[in-house]
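[job 4471] stage=fold_predict status=RUNNING
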Amino acid sequence: MKKQLLTLAISFIAFLGMAQDYSIPLDIDHWTTTHTGPLTEITSGLRCYSTGYRNGNALLSKEVFDLRDKDIYIRWQKDNKGSFLRGYLGVYNTEAFLRFSRNSSYGTSFPNATPLFTRIHIDSSNKEVVIVTCTGNYDNAGGTVQETLNKVISDNYWKNVLNGNVYIRFNDTQNAGATMDIEEVIISNSAPIIRETQKLYDFSDGTIPADFTTAGSWIIDNAESPNGNSMYIAGNTDNYVSFDVTNAVAVKLRYKCSYPGGDSSPTSETVTGLYIYKNGAGSGELNVYYAGRTSYAGDWREIILPADASGTVTFKLQFTRDSGRKFWLDEVRVLKSKSSNAAPTDISLSNSAINENSAIGSVVGNISVTDADANDMHFLELVSGTGSDDNSYFRINGNDLILKQSPDYETKTTLRLRVRATDENLKYAEKSFTINVNDVNEAPEIAASQVFGVDENSAEGTVVGTVSASDVDAGTNLTYSITSGNGEGLFAINSSNGEITVAASGLDYETAVQYSLGVEVSDGSLSDSGTVTVNVSDVNETPEIATGQVFNVDENSPNGTLIGTVSASDVDAGS
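[job 4471] inference complete, writing C-alpha cells
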C-alpha cells in the first residue's frame, strides 16, 4: 500500500486544559472548491469569483469539527457588480445555513460590498440552530443585526454536526466580475478532529475494488494522476459509483472532473456534473457546470466528506441531468479519529543524480517521509518556494519522483525542486533537493545539406570545402573520414579538421558533374554520418587539332579546289 501525502498544518492549542478558538487558515490548501469558478488568496483572506453567466464556486473546509454547542464565526462580504447572485453559509449537509441573494425571493438581500458578520450556534440539547448576521461586528460584540434565523437540525443530518465541515457557496452570478471574500472563519472552543487512515483505496492493483458498486463503463486509467492509477468514466446520466464506510469520521476523495462542451451544450438551466448522496439522500455537488456557457478542464482536488463515527454510511457519486463529463477518482481514504498527531519531520530522496538526456518518465528516486506517527500516510507534491526553480522538470507518482522533461548537462548542471509531505491532518513538512545532472558523451553531428563546388581539372591539393560538424561536449577532438562515393580516389579529407581537397587529377565536368561523398565524424566513441555534395564546374578548355594530318593536291589545280578538311575538337559542348 502506498504512502501518500496531503497539504497543510493545523493548530491544536490547549490552554489550562481547555480548547481555545480555532481559526481555519484562509489559504487554498485548507479548502476544497467544488464548482467551476476560480479561488484566489488575497490580503484579507480568500476571494471567490464568478467566471460568467451562472458560474461561481463552493468552498468546503478540509478540516472537520465537532460543532455541538459551538459558535461558528464567519466574516465575509460580496460584491455582485450589479448582477443577480445567490449563495449559502453554514455547516455542510445540514439545515444550519443561511441563504443570501440580491433577489429576496432566493435569500436575504444583505448590503453589497459591505463587511458582514455571521454567527452560527448549534445547541446539542434540542438540535436548534441560531444564525445571526450583522454589520459592524458580530451580534455578541455589538454588531447591527441584519437577520436572525432559527432552525432545527433533523436527525438524519445530526451526524454531520458531530463531524462537520464549514460550507460556503457563491454562485448563480451573471457578471464575471462578481466576487465574494471570506475574511475570517473561527470555531469557538474547538480544534479540528485529529484523523488517521482506516482504509485506503488507491487502485494501485489496477482493479476496481470488489466492495464498490458501479453503473456505467468505469475503467482503471493509468493517466498522469497522483497515484498513477484512477477509476475513470466518461459519464452519462445516472452512471455512479458507491461504497460503504463504517465507524469513520470522514472520507477524503481525490478526484478530477472536466467537461469538454462549449456555449451550445449543455442547454439546461442548471446542470449538475456529479452529485453526492449519503444513505440515499442528496448532500451536495462534487462538481458543477452551469447553463452551458463555458467548458472547463478539471484539476485534481481533494474533498473531505463527513461520515458517521458510530455507524455505516453509503456514499454514492452519481451523474445527473447531463452526459459527457469525464471523471477520475484517484483515491478514497476512509478516516477515523485518533488522540494526537505530530507533523512529519523530514523528507528524503533516495537518489541525487541523473544522466542528461534521460527519457521522460524515468524514475529519479524514491521519496520517503519521517514521521513520529508511524501509521500516518502522506500526500507528496511539488510546491513553490526556496529551491523550487526546476519543479517543472518533475512530477510525483505515489512515492516516485518522475522526469517530465529530459535534462541537458550543457544547459543545466543541477536541478532544484521542493517537495511537501502532508499527513491526514494537514500537518506538513517541506524540503528542497538538488539533483546533479551527469554529463554523458553525446554523438557529434554533421550539419545537413552541405554543398561544395570545384572546377574541373583542378590540381591536386585544391581545397573543395570543409565539412561542418559539431559536438555539444566541450573540448572534444573530432576525426573525419570519407566513407563512400570516392571510388576513383579523386578526393581526400583532413582527418583533423574535415577539409576536403582534390586528391588526384581526373575531375572532368564532361564525365561527372556531381559527386556525393559519404562522410563520418567521430569523437572516438560515438559518430555521425552524412552526405556532402561536390558540384564540378565546367571550365573553357583549349580546342585540339589532330596530329599527322596530310592532304594531297594536283599541280596546276584551279582556285577553289578542295584540298582537305582540318580535323579539330573541343571537349566543351557547343563550342
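[job 4471] summary: The longest helix spans residues 155-162.
[job 4471] exit 0
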